[in-house]
Amino acid sequence: MVDSTRLAKVYGNPTVEPLAWERKNMVVWKLPPLIDLAIPELPSKIYMHKKFVPVVEKWFNALIEAGVSHEINTFDGCWNVRTKRGLRSLSIHAWGMAVDLNASHNPLGLTREQCLKRGLIPFTEKFISVSRKFVDCGADWTTRPDLMHFQIKGAQAYGPDPI
Ligand SMILES: [Zn+2]
User: Fold this and answer.
1) Which tens digits make up the pLDDT trace of 114-147?
2) Under CATH, which number does the domain 4-158 receive?
3) Backbone phi, psi, residue 28, to 5°
4) How many CA atoms lie within 13 A of 157 on its CB side?
5) Exposure of 30 in the CB half-sphere (CA atoms within 13 A)
6) What distance in angstroms lies between residue 93's CA and the mean position of ligand 1's atoms?
7) Distance between CA 39 and CA 50 in Å, rounded?
8) Taking the complete model, does pTM exceed 0.85, yes or no?
9) In angstroms, what is the span from residue 146 Cα to ligand 1's centroid?
């Protein structure tokens, strides 16, 4: 799994010379028409790390193919230079390599079962299992689940080639 220390080594720390960092790393991704049409709840443009773009494109296409893309109801952010909630280390969002989706029905700290018990509609297991092939899912974090959260895998961030 990616961690902020190694990301800072490879891509630089986004809080140090932030404007230069942003210019070097961030891009406006204009969603391909197929994704834009299939998931109208997403913004037409997402500002993210250039390394994350091909990953997210393949992931969204796979969600559409698997028939689960309709589960996406809200886009709750990608790039945000901040620390992890309640923690001191920088969030992967600070590198623009994570997205949050359907935040209100997948609150931080609750498992799927706990969400269901509260009458929320978390992502289905199928949605998570398709997503898992492309991104790391906060749903899989045992100490503090974060069902809304999806982030770049280590191999994609550090490997010589994105998948
Ligand atoms: Zn997140």
Assistant:
1) 999 999 999 999 999 999 999 999 999 999 999 9
2) 3.30.1380
3) -90, 115
4) 25
5) 1
6) 6
7) 21
8) yes
9) 7
pLDDT at 88: 77
- Give the amino acid at 51: K
Task: For residues 3 and 73, give the distance between their C-alpha atoms in angstroms, rounded to a whole number.
Answer: 28
State how far the Cα of 12 lies from the Cα of 162, in Å rounded to an integer: 18
Bridge partner residues of 136 (DSSP): 151
Q: Report how far residue 62's alpha carbon sits from residue 72's, in angstroms, rounded to the nearest whole number.
A: 13
At 3, the amino acid letter reads D
Neighbours of ion ligand 1 (CB under 5 A): 98, 100, 149
CB atoms within 10 A of CB 97: 26
Q: Which residue has the tokens 């998948």?
A: 163
